[in-house]
Amino acid sequence: MYKTENYGIFLGLLTMPFGQEKDFIKYEIENLFEQYKENVRNNLNQTVSKNTEFSRYLYRPRPYCLFGSFDLAVISLVDDFGLATRHFHPFSPLVSDKLKADKEKGKTDYSSSNYTFHVISGLAPDLRYIDSKESKLLERARQTFLNSRTKDYPFIGITSLKVNNALLIGGGGDTVDIILQEVQSVLSEAELKDNTSLNYCIFHSLSWHELTIVFFSNSYEVIAEQVFALRKLTLKDTKPRGSHSETRKKIYDDCKRDSLLYHFLESEKIANSSERAEAAHLFVHTHTIFGYDLNILFDDRRFDKTLDKKLNFQMNWDIKPGHLSAFRRALEAKIASSPEYKFLKNGRITAGRGDYTYTITQNAMEGFRKLIKVIIGEKNEKYPLKQHIRQLNTVPEFTRKFPDSQKEVTALSNQYPFHDYLHRFQFKLEEIESVRSTLKRLRVSKVVREKVSNMYTIYNDGISDKILYGYFIELKPFLEMIREMLKSWIEKADDEALPVFVLSNSLDAIAQNFETAYQNRFGQSYIMNEITDHNLKFNGGIQQLVTAYDGAYKSLTALLGERFIKIKRDMGLSIAYVSGFPNIESDILSVRLNYFHLYQPEFFAAAATHEAANFFFERWYDTMDEKPELENIARLLKDDSIPPFVKSTIQYFFSDTASFHLTYADDFKLFFYWHWCSIIQIDALYRQDGNIYQPFLDHFILRMRLIAHYTSNQDILNNMISPPFGCDQDIFVDVWDEVMDNSQRNFEELEENYGEYLKQCYDLVLGFLVMDFAYHDKENFFSYIQETIKKDSPFTKEIDDYHDNQKFDFFTHEEENQAYTYVCYARQIYLRNIASEIIKSFKKGELYNFDHWRGHLPLTYSKDQEAFFFQALSLAYLKLVQELCGNKAQLLKRTHSSNCVDVDTTNVSLWFDPLGGVFTTKLETRKLYYKYRVIFLKSLWNLSMKRKRALFGLEGRWKR
Hints:
Blueprint: E1 8-14, H1 21-43, H2 53-57, E2 62-66, E3 72-78, H3 82-87, H4 93-104, E4 117-123, H5 137-143, E5 155-163, H6 165-171, H7 173-188, E6 198-205, E7 211-217, H8 220-231, H9 246-258, H10 260-267, H11 273-278, E8 283-293, H12 294-298, E9 312-319, H13 324-337, E10 348-349, E11 356-360, H14 364-376, E12 389-397, H15 406-411, H16 429-441, H17 446-463, H18 469-472, H19 476-491, H20 500-522, H21 543-559, E13 575-578, E14 585-587, E15 590-593, H22 595-599, H23 602-613, H24 616-619, H25 628-638, H26 644-662, H27 668-679, H28 694-710, H29 714-720, H30 730-773, H31 778-789, H32 796-802, H33 817-843, H34 865-884, E16 910-912, E17 918-920, H35 923-947
Parallel strand pairs: 13-15
Antiparallel strand pairs: 1-3, 1-4, 2-3, 2-8, 4-6, 5-7, 5-8, 6-7, 9-11, 9-12, 10-11, 14-15, 16-17
Helix pairs in contact: 1-4, 6-9, 6-35, 16-17, 16-19, 17-20, 21-23, 21-35, 23-26, 25-30, 26-28, 26-30, 28-29, 28-30, 30-33, 33-34, 34-35
C-alpha cells in the first residue's frame, strides 16, 4: 500500500516576458516563495534554525526554461498546499512589498505583469517502500533541482501519465501501486550510453492524471526513450515474476479481477477475459514537456556545445498581425550583420499554429541560444525582434530511430477497447427529448428548459472522453434523479401543482450546481494543457480530490435514504462540487465544498454525515404511507403552523444523531469538539464588528444539549461547558451566561411540546444503524455477534433473551430495544477498532489496507461496507487532528482589521482561524499535519475508486 514522503512537490508552468527574464524570476518567483516561507516562519512559535530541512530545502524554487507554450517550469519542495492553490498567480500580494521597495530605491524598473500559468500539486510516494535501494525524495531533490550545478542534469522532461480508467476503477490505489512499482523498475534499470545521465522524481498529482515524472538528464533522447518505454507498458508487465512475495501476486490478481475492464469482459462473456485484461495498456495518455536549466540561456560558461548534437528543433513564431514585413526586414538585417546568424536563412512562412517556422539542425541547442539572443536583442537596441513576436513555440525533434517491436504489434490484437463502449453510458436522444417534453408540459421557460436539457448533452460529451470518462460517470445518477423528479412533478394532483416560478428557481439552482460540478471535473484537464488557470476559487486541477469526496458522500447519502427511492441506486445519487462559498452546505442532491475542505479535510470529515442526513425524510417521502413514525416527523417538518425554529431544530437533531453514531462512534467529547471547531470558523457566528452573533451560538448549544440528553452525556456536557472551551477569546465570555440560559429554556420548551418527535428521531437512527449493520443473514447475526465480541460487551444477557425473537422492522423496534442497543454497541466496537488500526498506519505514513476486513463478519452483513470504512476513516482522522491540536480548540486572535495577533506566547501548535482554515505554529506539527492530510486524501480516493465501478452498472468491489 501507498506510503508517503514528508514533503510534496510543487510544479508550476508559466510564461514570462521577453527580455525581462531575470527580473521576472527574481520578483515573481523567488520573492513569492521567500515571502510565503517568511509568513510560515512568522506563524511559528519557535525560532527556525538555518540548519533545519525547512530552512535549507523547502520553498526554494528552481526555474527551468521550457519548450512549448509555457516558457518556465518552477520546481520546489513544499510541506503544504497553500502556495500552489492560493498564492501562485499574477499580481500576488506576496510579491508587491519587495517589488515596491526596490522600485522606490531605484534598484529595478520592472513592473508586475500578467502571465499564463498552470499548477500541479504533487504528493510524493516513498519509493523506498517499493525498493529499499531507492533514495528518499529529499535526496533526489538535492541531486537534481536543489543542486545548483548545471552540468550534471542540464535538461528536464516533465511527463504526465494518465492511468487507464478501465484498470484504475475497481482497483483504486492498489492498481496505482503496482503501476508505480513497474514504472520505478523501468526507470531504475534504464540502460545509459555515451556518457549520458538520468535521474527522476516521481509524484502523484491531484489533477486529471495520476502520475507525474520529472526527468533530469544531459540528453533529451534518453528522456524520450524512457517515456516511450512507459507508454508501451501493459497490465501484464506489472505481473510479479520470479521470487516476488505471495502478497504482491495476490494484489496483482485482485487488481486485475476487480478492474472495470475485467468485469465488463465477464459481463459481456468475452472469451479469454483474463488475458484481454492483461493486454490493456497502463496509460491512455501521456504529455511531455521538455526544458533546460535556466543557466544555459544566460551563462556561456555553463553551456556545453556538445549537448545532443543530433537533436533538431522546430520553432514556430506567432508574428503579430501587420508586423510580418517589418519582422522580415529586421531579421534580414540581423542576418546580414553577422555570419553566426546565417542559419536563420531557412525560415519559412507557414499556416496554422505559427506564422514563421525554423528548423534548426545539428547543434540545435547552441543555435537555439543564438536565436533567443537575436529575438531579445541588445540592451539598448531600438527595435528588437521581440516587439514583432507574440509567442514562440519550440518542439524538439528526435532523429534517432527507436526500434519497432513485433511483440507490441501482436499484443494489440488481444486488447479490448472498453472506451468504444462508452456510448452505453450516455443518455439516449429519446431520453433527452423526453426531458425537453416534460419541461414543456411543466410550462418552464425556454431559457431554463435549454439549460436543463444541456446538462444531459454536455454530460454525454464528458462520458465520451476516452481519458476523462471516469470522472463524469459520477454525474449520471444525479441526472437520472432529475428525470425522475420531473416525472413526479408531472404526476402531482392539481391541488399539489407547484407554481412555475418555484419549478424554474429549483431547476436553475440544480443546473448551476451541475455546471460547477462539471467544470470541477473538466477544468485544467489535458484538453486545457496550454490554457491558464482561470478559476476564481483555487489553482490547479482537483479531479482526484473531487472523486474522493464524491465517493465518500455518495456512500453516506445512499446509506441515508437514497438507495430506497425510485431508481434504487445503491451507490448514491448526490454529487460533490467545489465552489467559493465559505461553508459546507447541501441540498437533496449535492454537497458544496470549498478550498479549505479540499485541503484541510477534517472539516468535511466532521460534517459530511450531518449534511447527508439533512434530507433523509424527503428521500423517503414516496414510502411515507408504510412508515407511520417517519410520516409523523415528515409531516411536522412540512407543517406551516409549526415555528421554523422548531422544525429546523428537529431536523438538526436527527442529522446530529446520525452523525454522532455513524461518524463519531458515540464519542460525545469528540463529537462536541469537532462541532465546536467547525462553528468557530463559520461566518454566521460573527457580527461585522468581530463580536458574536448570539442567536447562532444559542442554537448551537441547544443542539449540543439535545444530543447530550438523548445519549446520556449530560454530565460530560455540563463539565465541558465553561467559556471559552480552551478557546482564549473574551468575545465568548461576554455572552456566555445569556447563551446558557437561552439554550436551557429552549431545551425545556422543546422537550415539553415536541419530546415525542425528538424521541422518534432518535429511535429512527438506532433502527437505521441496525438495519445497515445487519442487512444480510439477520437470523444468524445476533448469535454471531455474541460469540465474537461477548467478552467486550455488557449486553450478553440481553442478546440471549432476544435470540429467539429477532425482529428487524426498521421503524418499529420497541420490543427489541435492548437487542438494538447491543447491536449499536457492537457496531461501535468494530468502528473504533478499525479506526485504531487506521491511526497506527497513518502515524507510519501508510495507507490502511481495508482488504484485511473484506469478507470479515459482521461486516459481511452490512449493505454498504464502503460506507462503514469511510466512517472509520473519518473517525481515525478526526482523532489524529484533535491530538495534534492538543485537544484544544484554539481560536486565532484577530484585530478588528483582521490582522493576526501575535501567537508566540502559546504552546498550542494548531490554531483555528475565524476567517477559515487552520494555522500550524510548530514545524513538527506542520509536518505531521501535512502527512496525515496526504494519507487521508489518498485513502479517501482509494476507497472511492474501488467503489466507483458500480456506477457503470457492475457489481461493487466488496460484493463478491
